[in-house]
Sequence to fold (505 residues):
Amino acid sequence: MFSSSRNTAQTNISTTKRRSLRMMQVFLAFFGLLVACSNRPPQVPAISPNALKFYEKHPDYLFKSIIQRRFKLEDIEPTIKALHAPFRVSLAGQSFQKRNIYHVNIGNGPVKVLLWSQMHGDEPTATMAMMDIFNFFQQKDEFDPLRQEILSKLSLHFIPMLNPDGANRFTRRSMQGIDINRDALRLQTPEARILKKVRDEVKADWGFNLHDQNIYLGAGRGPYPASISFLAPAYDYEKSINEVRGDAMKLIGLMNQVLQTRIPNQVGRYDDAFEPRAFGDNMQKWGTRTILIETGGLKGDPENQELRRLNFTIFMSALEGIANQVYQKWDFSGYDSLPENESNSFHDMILRKLQIMRNDKLYTVDLAFRRAEVEAPAPNKYFYKSTISELGDLSTSHAYEEHNLEGYQAVPGKILSGVYPSGQNIGPAEIKDFHSRGITDIQRTGWAENMEQSKFPLLFIRPKDNSADPGQSGVIGLGVNTSLLIQKDGVTEYVVVNGFLHKIL
Ligand SMILES: [Zn+2]
Fold:
C-alpha cells in the first residue's frame, strides 16, 4: 500500500510533470512558430505578368530618333508638339534662355501623377523613356485594356526635359549656373518656378523625380554597380515615415521586384539624408508621394539604351501598380532590402596586381582608370579623356572591366620624336612598328577629337617644344593619363592608351 500509494503518488507527480511538459512543448512550438514567422522573408505580391511584357515589347514603342544620350530640345520638340488627342500638350513656360518647357497630359482619372525629367541637363535617360511612353499611349495592341485602366484611373502629367538649356550644353546646371534641384524654396530659376507651378496646379498625388547618377556608384559594397537607384526622399531630418512617404516606399518595392528580374543586385538606394532645398524632399513634405529614380551605369551600355528600356519598364509597372493599387499590398521590406549606394567604389577599368617601378624599387599595385567624357566640336559627340583614378590595394573597388595582370610590369610608353603629318592615316603595320619600339604617343596637329579617336591604340598629343627628344608619356600616378607598356620579362604584350587596354599586334 505504502509502496503502492508511493507509486500512485509517483504516478500523479509524473502525470503532472508530463502535463506541464506537454504545455511547455505547445508553448515552445507556438513561440517557435512566432520566431519562424518573423524570420521568414515577408510575403510579397507576385510580379505582374505585364511587367515582363513591358520590357519585351519596348522595341515597339521605341522613339527611334534618339538612340544616344546627347540630344537637345530640338530633337524631341517637334514630336511633343505633334502629340494629338488623347494627349493635351501645353507650354508650361520657358527656360532662362527662352527654350520651351512642355506639360504633356493624358488621362482623366482622379489620381494625379507627375513625372519630370532632365532637371539636370546631362541626365537624359528618363527623357528617352518618356518619349517611348508617349508612343505607348498612341498605339493599339494587347495592352489596350491596361491603357484604358490607367487613363481612367490616373491623370498623367509629364514635363520632359525641365532643363533644356542644360541639355543644350549637356551640363548639369541651368544657364544661371544654379542647380535647379537646390532651388525648390528660393525659386530663382524659371525652371524651378515652372515645376512648382505645375505641381501645385495638378495637385500631384505622386511625383517621379527622374535623374541619372554618377556611374561610379556601387550597389552596396559588392562588385555590382548601382545601375538604377531609388529613394523615397525624407521630408525631415529625422527621416520620419508618414503615409505619403510610406506609399512611395511601397511602390519602390514593386519597381525593385521588376528590376531584379533584369539586373539582379544592381539596384541601390540613394543617400536618404534630408536636403531642405531639394524638390523631392519638399514635394514629399507638400504631400506628393515622391520617388527619386537615379539611372547609373550598366556594363556594355555606354549610351544607356538598355537602361532606357528598364526605365520604361519600371515607369509602366509603377503606373499599373498605382492604377490597380497593388502597391498597397507591399510593406517596406522591398525598400529596406535595397543596398545603399556606395560612393566612389567603381572605375571604368582596373588592372590588378601590376608591378611598377619607382626609384629602382618594384612594387605591386592595382591601377584603376576612369574615362571622362569631353564634349567634342562635332554636335552631340564626345571623346574620352582618361586618367589613373586610383592605385594601390584596390581589393575593395570594382570596375566595369577588370584584368588580372599578375606577373606583368607597367612602364610608361615613349613619345614619337617629331611631329607626325596631320592628314596621314596610321595603319596596323605602323601601329605595330610604333608599339614594338615602345612608342605610344604621337605629336600631331589638326586631328579631330572624337570618340573613336580616343579609343585608338596610340594617343595623339599636341606637339611639345622639345620635339627632338620628347621623352616618355609621363609618370604612373594619380590623376594623369600616362600611356603604358604592359610587359612580361621585358616583352611588351599590351599597351594602355587613354584608359583602354589593347593587345599589341
Ligand atoms: Zn540629377
Notes: Residues 1-40 form one domain. The radius of gyration is 30 Å. The chain has three domains: 1-40, 49-342, 346-503.
